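Notes from hallway chat w/ T.B., transcribed later so I don't forget. T.B. wanted the structure written out for a chain they're using in a teaching module, and asked if we could keep both sequence and structure tokens in one place. Agreed to drop them here.
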Amino acid sequence: MSKQLAARARVVREVRAFFESRGYLEVETPLAIPCPGLDLHLDAFEVVPAGPPASSAKAPPRFLSTSPELQMKRLLVDGHARIFQITRAFRAGEIGERHNPEFTILELYRANAGVEAIMRDTEQLVARVTGGAVRLGDRTIDVKPPFARMTVCEAYERFAGIAPEETLRLAEHDEDRFFFVLVDAVEPALAKLDHAVFLTEYPSTQASLARKKPGDPRVAERFELYVAGVEVCNGFGELTDAVEQRARFVHDQEERARRGMPVYPLDERFLEALDRGMPDSGGNALGLDRLVALATGSTAIRDVLAFADDEL
């Protein structure tokens, strides 16, 4: 398939028009940052700035952003209530049909809005740029709102025969098995559906920066959207508690060290912003390359990249 660059440009225009029509402000945040996040499943590219020419002092390292999340949340604290960004993100070792070490990410955040509001924005955006249907060969996937919702526990029970309590136990005590079932049974079943589906209520051990669900702290306000088996986004009802967020970060630092992974510093300015008070908010990180690919009838992002990593 030839590169779908004109279609890509159209989708980017549609994305901007969508958010501007809903009162969102487009923002830009730095790409080289002191902390790229501490997610156990992501590794960053390190860049080492040179010190001043007349000084022997070594400047602290910077990392290429894996996501603009922490900086955008600081903007929420500063009073910017609806913001979005289309930017580059960098994740080491991510190569494949739906991965590239450098890719385009769309992130959006809404203050005083919950996870349901973010899911509604997301499904309306996807419907707008696809016309309500994704066509992959002979298949047509319905992406007209509202999208189906299915909790992680429901999906594991339906597609892998695993009871909810066991799913929660695996997520906490046997993460490798938890992800094996996700990749081996759940995601292939989702890929066969003829409609989009939000996978919701991830176990709280997989919460990342999402808050725990009020009334059921075993699960978190985290969702992912699947279309034809493609994971399009990762959204949260955002954690706003600075103490809990610091504890999660420290835990992830310790776990990265235990696994022999690079250990990144804490983003103290982000934690200070949380301590000042972030409003209840929802947010989402969407793989724009994946959305463009689906809109053009493909699941391979290289079809909509001017140059994939192996073409450089």
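Follow-up for T.B.: Residues 171 and 178 are 5 Å apart (CA to CA). Might be a good example for the class.
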